[in-house]
Amino acid sequence: MIIVMKPNAKKESIRNIIQIIEGKGLTAHISDGKEVTIIGVVGDKTKLQDQNLEISEDVDKIVPVTESYKLANKKFHPQPSVIKVGNVTIGGEEFVIMSGPCAVESREQLLETAHAIKKAGARILRGGAYKPRTSPYAFQGLEEEGLRFMKEAREETGLAVVCEVTSLAAIESAVKYVDMLQIGARNMQNFYLLKEAGKTGLPVLLKRGLSATIDEWLNASEYIIAEGNPNVVLCERGIRTFETATRNTLDISAVPVIKDKSHLPIIVDPSHATGVRKYVKSLAMGAVAVGADGLMIETHPDPAHALSDGPQSLTFPQFEELCAGIRPLAELMGKKF
Amino acid sequence: MIIVMKPNAKKESIRNIIQIIEGKGLTAHISDGKEVTIIGVVGDKTKLQDQNLEISEDVDKIVPVTESYKLANKKFHPQPSVIKVGNVTIGGEEFVIMSGPCAVESREQLLETAHAIKKAGARILRGGAYKPRTSPYAFQGLEEEGLRFMKEAREETGLAVVCEVTSLAAIESAVKYVDMLQIGARNMQNFYLLKEAGKTGLPVLLKRGLSATIDEWLNASEYIIAEGNPNVVLCERGIRTFETATRNTLDISAVPVIKDKSHLPIIVDPSHATGVRKYVKSLAMGAVAVGADGLMIETHPDPAHALSDGPQSLTFPQFEELCAGIRPLAELMGKKF
Amino acid sequence: MIIVMKPNAKKESIRNIIQIIEGKGLTAHISDGKEVTIIGVVGDKTKLQDQNLEISEDVDKIVPVTESYKLANKKFHPQPSVIKVGNVTIGGEEFVIMSGPCAVESREQLLETAHAIKKAGARILRGGAYKPRTSPYAFQGLEEEGLRFMKEAREETGLAVVCEVTSLAAIESAVKYVDMLQIGARNMQNFYLLKEAGKTGLPVLLKRGLSATIDEWLNASEYIIAEGNPNVVLCERGIRTFETATRNTLDISAVPVIKDKSHLPIIVDPSHATGVRKYVKSLAMGAVAVGADGLMIETHPDPAHALSDGPQSLTFPQFEELCAGIRPLAELMGKKF
Amino acid sequence: MIIVMKPNAKKESIRNIIQIIEGKGLTAHISDGKEVTIIGVVGDKTKLQDQNLEISEDVDKIVPVTESYKLANKKFHPQPSVIKVGNVTIGGEEFVIMSGPCAVESREQLLETAHAIKKAGARILRGGAYKPRTSPYAFQGLEEEGLRFMKEAREETGLAVVCEVTSLAAIESAVKYVDMLQIGARNMQNFYLLKEAGKTGLPVLLKRGLSATIDEWLNASEYIIAEGNPNVVLCERGIRTFETATRNTLDISAVPVIKDKSHLPIIVDPSHATGVRKYVKSLAMGAVAVGADGLMIETHPDPAHALSDGPQSLTFPQFEELCAGIRPLAELMGKKF
After folding, report:
1. Whole-model pTM?
2. Parallel, antiparallel, or unpaired: how do β-strands C27-32 and C37-42 relate?
3. D58 and D78 fall within a common domain
4. pLDDT of residue B211
5. 3-class SS at D291?
6. Pair C38, C167 in one domain
7. Are residues B288 and B226 in the same domain?
8. What is the pLDDT of residues A120-143, one digit of tens each?
9. pLDDT digits (tens, 9 = 90+) for A257-309
10. C63 touches A: beta carbon within 8 Å
11. pLDDT tens for each residue of D307-319
12. If both were cysteines, with which of A245, C103, D21, D306 could D28 make a disulfide (CB 3.0 to 4.6 Å apart)?
């Protein structure tokens, strides 16, 4: 942590800051510059948590030097994490595709989808039973009934299953049926929910919030890991920008940045990122080439009549085509698919 | 709802769309343009909810014509709503200032603050008992103990009290102690929480999400109102943009836009919007002049040692000065303060 | 300037950095932290301009300590600048309203507008003769003929006149006719144009770029001032964000931030910021209350037939009403209007 | 073009709109909805350019149906354009890499770079002779001397050369030395410059502005093409968002979106998009897989001492490694490299 003083800061102000630092058992290193004085703080900066030095007299700004997330930080855990979901591993050699409908609508729809995506190459079935929708008048999900269909699909196909949870009640139901919990973009900073998901010990798919920085995203993962649950997979699904040609803007750079800063695996969801079916395949290809560990792709037996996110869902033939395109590319990238 | 066909759309594709529309008992109005054909849909468009016409053949795009929120919409409720919180009214003639610490830290801190802000002119005491913090290692709040202090402060001063809730458990506790529930920016689209807050019947202060459009914000309020609870007050607290000179960017235009689109009252929180103490007063002045119904201002007996958001909190003398500046301005705007 | 080393940086890497710093005649202050080493650089950092230390081995990041703009910086010029435009002063006691049509369309339109805005209280006439338009098929301006009308309007009314310039040729024409040059948002980082505008010695109204940070904006002003022309007035006119209810998002916080960081005057343009006529007045009120030195408001004798930006232009009665609202507010803020 | 009336719009208001439309020789199609009336306009909408219908009484909003760009629009030019730059073609079967230093610093630096990038596989040499820099105190380029070195490098290596132009004077010099003009991000809406670049007939590399929508970008290309110069290549180089882990956010979705909306070729510049050397290669891979026609990659013989953008420049060995990675991927995508 570095404290930058204002130009012409009074000696007394500087002395005062040093006293606070030393009073907490830390060491202050002073650099008297031509224009400004800067003070480096050496030691455990959490001891200064109840000292808002930025509003002390003559302080210009505080510059943090280390990241606030520790458990998700590659600096302290250099080996990439490999997360086990059912019998699938994410973050290792496998390239993993999760697929399925935005919302579970019926037993038939889900089972039909499960068989189709398995055949094409997907390893994990996704499906929403609790749907966070912008409008209260849109379809809100089948809730526990949807979870039961998920479990049935798992038993029939051997696919692992992942489902979004939006409340403690949903978590309590979901743990009985699914292999992995998903925290959606809108709940990325619902810290209460993160802690509860962490407590279950189940692997958690943590989607990036619409306007979350990568730093905040990793701090959100820290909430889960700090509960003793290191099984976190990150999912980039587009951020909100001024551009309207796509529903969100896929921040594909997040993949190499996460690989640089964290040991957690990261997958990409081009369906939510663009909201437009015709762009999904090429962005999926881009995600593989940039080094992602997997993909999440929305599929539906009849997208024209999907109750949620139909316009971005692929038909089964489209999904097969996507998988066919990805196969040689994943191989080129050294991944098994 | 308007359907714009692609140039050179096949007649059959157009016929197909018309059939779907008429099959739902709606009417289709066709305009054959020089370049494109457009189809206007007349009737209750919710009947088309399970028809994703945008992916039908030869459809270019769908343009919604009416807003998806109804209960919060001024078009169907032209009179401004006046919300009662304890013995205070928001949205009417009063200009209402809510103030207090970001986090309740102790009984003494809260009571001292309550007395100070009351003296300066505030009508509602704010204070966080459940704190959503970016890092799991930061202070997370006193929880129910904090709520008890809030209630005590209310009894001692007569101020109404508002507290943020972050889970169903927090709501269940809060209803026993406070006059108004706050849904924070990070939970604006935690639809589960919105519904539960709606069910309590208590007035709800709904902060705008960091990257929520005004349209999404009004849809979020719709979740609360749809539970039979029309007592919603909106709070603009800054949106996330590329600018870093302030923590967020206060979208002050939201005030006239909300006044134009909705009947709900709106207040402004310049403390969170800027994150910088020295900018709070002038933005508070701006908020009054632009027509806001009130302000939320963070104050603390000793901001340098606040456990949360100290750098943006005002001291009591600073808060008094702010209130003194606002008094003649509120009067000029025709408000009582 | 501070250099933050990576955790476990090799001693040799640190020695290497120190050598580079000392080799340039500067001093390095070392703080050996528990986790990382930081190196403070004391002396004239421009000597390190051709050293990209951030890519040296084991360097984590470089943190600048001082702003790159000097002449626009309040730290080195604490007194607010008062800029003279014709017989008007901006940045002092006067509250100055500039008004007029987006585009000069005809002699009659301009003269009629000039008389109307003068009567209502405006001091400076604006009008575009060179129009930067998104589409090449939209009206592009009357060019030099428009400038002649501006001059005529000045002579008839005594108003000062300001006109946007978009090229060296436009500057060469404009200096013969107007009192102030405007650099538009799209050209804020057209550094060539900034220098040429600077050389004229005429006061320059520098609009903020759509996605320019305040820091970049002040650096842009530095290009003008560095040519020996300190007569710069800044104009906040909205930034680009995800919100679409208004054309841009008025960053009203820019007013107190600029007042804190620079000595240059700042005015606000709510017409371009919102793009919607009905929101202009309340945002104009907000701008006065937040401490702006003036306003730019688009007006037109017949907005419904304006060739550019009609939807955001006020009629003359609307402009009179706006000025009437501002009068007591400006007075309350200690400004003459 | 569609006009949406307000709920309860007066019949007279609707009649008035219809009269305006018909008065211009266009046809109005009326759809009387349950809630609102919408009016479709059939015919050449440019006839309504001087009618700001959105501010007519009882009009709620105007919805454009067709894009304002025509010459760049795929709808009217379905075949992809292939642009010739020297003896290189962009947009066809070749995958084209442009490379070189951000700024031309010396004859030696440029020639050394030209030979190195040619050997690795690049086809076009880039190098800035006129540098738009945020601060006026940073290196501004060698100007015409730099252009002479570019020409010499072309003659020695056979590479085509591209150079950014920032003024009419720069264009007048550049046409004597280079094969392709570059319009930089900051000048994307410098319409004067676009027109002048268009007039030269030389191919133009048009970088996307930092906050330009894809629609505005295509409109900017329209300025060039409308001068009779169809030789435009687009370059995605990152947009400005809230994320700070990378300098800008690479909007990789722009590649499929442009391919869908326009016939112009598009390349990707991961160097400027991220500003961080270690992320360049994986983003370059992503760009190939997503379907880009080429790349622009900054290289420098000694990035640590580059006068501009050193931290994002690759060394020659790094560039060779990047090209080696791209070779099999480009082939997989059906491109020659």
Report:
1. 0.93
2. antiparallel
3. no
4. 94
5. coil
6. no
7. yes
8. 999 999 999 998 888 888 888 999
9. 999 999 999 999 999 999 999 999 999 999 999 999 999 999 999 998 888 88
10. yes
11. 888 788 999 999 9
12. D21
Say yes or no: C96 and C206 in one domain: yes
With contacts defined as CB-CB under 8 Å, which chain A residues touch C33? 40-43, 65
For residues D54 and D79, the model is more confident at D79
Q: What is the CATH number of the domain that holds B133?
A: 3.20.20.70
CA distance A277 to A269: 12
- Residues of chain C in contact with residue A36, where contact means CB-CB under 8 angstroms, are 65-66
State the distance between the two ends of chain C, measured CA to CA, in whole angstroms.
45
The domain boundary residue, chosen from A15, A41, A63: A63
d(CA D267, CA A94): 31
Q: Are residues C202 and C270 in the same domain?
A: yes
Q: Which residues contact C143 (CB under 8 A, 6 or more apart)?
A: C129, C130, C170, C173
Whether D30 and D39 have beta carbons less than 8 Å apart is answered as yes
Counting Cβ atoms within 10 Å, is residue A153 exposed (0-12), middle (13-18) or buried (19+)?
buried
Phi and psi torsions of B317, nearest 5°: -60, -35
User: Does residue D69 lie within any of the structural domains?
Assistant: no
The residue among B35, B63, B91 that closes a domain is B63
Whether residue A337 is contained in a domain is answered as: no
Residue B337 lies in a domain: no
Nearest-neighbour CA in chain B from D34: distance (Å): 6
Query: Is C238 in the same domain as C287?
Result: yes
Domain count, chain B: 2
Beta carbons of C282 and B245 less than 8 Å apart: no
Q: How confident is the model at residue C8 (pLDDT cuts 50, 70, 90)?
A: confident
**Residues B269-283 pLDDT 10s:** 999 999 999 999 999
Q: Is residue B26 within 8 angstroms of chain D, CB to CB?
A: no
Q: Higher pLDDT residue, A149 or D2? A: A149
CATH at residue B8? 3.30.70.1140
Could you tell me if A34 and A155 lie in one domain? Answer: no
Per-residue pLDDT reduced to its tens digit, B75-104: 889 999 999 999 999 999 999 999 999 999
Looking at per-residue pLDDT, the higher value among D297 and B309 belongs to D297
Which chains have 3 or more CB–CB distances shorter than 8 Å to chain B? Answer: A, C, D
User: CB within 8 A of B60, min separation 6: which ones?
Assistant: B4, B5, B6, B36
Domain membership of residue A269 (yes or no) is yes
Are A221 and A272 within one domain? yes
Is there a contact between C304 and D277 if contact means CB atoms under 8 Å apart? Answer: no
Neighboring chain A residues of B210 at a CB cutoff of 8 Å: 211
Chain Cα centroid distance, residue B334:
23
| Chain B residues within 8 A of A311 when measuring between CB atoms | 52, 54-55
Burial label, D87 (beta-carbon count in 10 A; 0-12, 13-18, 19+): exposed
Q: Which residue of C has its CA nearest to A37?
A: C42
Residue C141 in 3-state DSSP?
Answer: coil
Partner residue opposite D66 with nearest CB, options B35, B63, B244: B35
Measured from the Cβ of residue D88, the count of other Cβ atoms closer than 10 Å reads: 20
CB contacts, 8 Å: D241 with chain A: 239, 241, 249, 251
Pairing type for strands B59-63 and B2-5 reads: antiparallel
Helix (H, G, I), strand (E, B) or coil at D221: helix
Range of the domain at A231: 74-332
Inspect the interface and report whether the beta carbons of D36 and B65 lie closer than 8 Å: yes
pLDDT of residue C38: 85
Highest mean pLDDT, choosing among A7-16, B44-53, C31-40: A7-16
Give the C:D interface size as CB pairs under 8 Å.
120
Q: How long, in residues, is chain A? A: 337
CB distance from D322 to chain A under 8 Å?
A: no
Return all residues near D229 (Cβ < 8 A) that are at least 6 apart: D197, D198, D199, D200, D201, D202, D204
* Residue D59 clears pLDDT 80, i.e. is over it: yes
When pLDDT is cut at 50, 70 and 90, the band that residue A60 belongs to is confident
